[in-house]
Description:
mainly alpha; elongated
Amino acid sequence: xxxxxxxxxxxxxxxxxxxxxxxxxxxxxxxxxxxxxxxxxxxxxxxxxxxxxxxxxxxxxxxxxxxxxxxx
Length: 72
């Protein structure tokens, strides 16, 4: 194999692996209702006021979605 072909294969495998790892790390659908207090705690501990508002909104949305899931 020539070096450019080998480098292309290695780069492709590295990119696919990176995407797979990021998908696994950022996936939390199964755990989003496990600890709703975590979202509220993050909102309380936020440094900036804009961050705090965004985290409060996220906590409200997640809690609403969990309540909907429990009803179904």
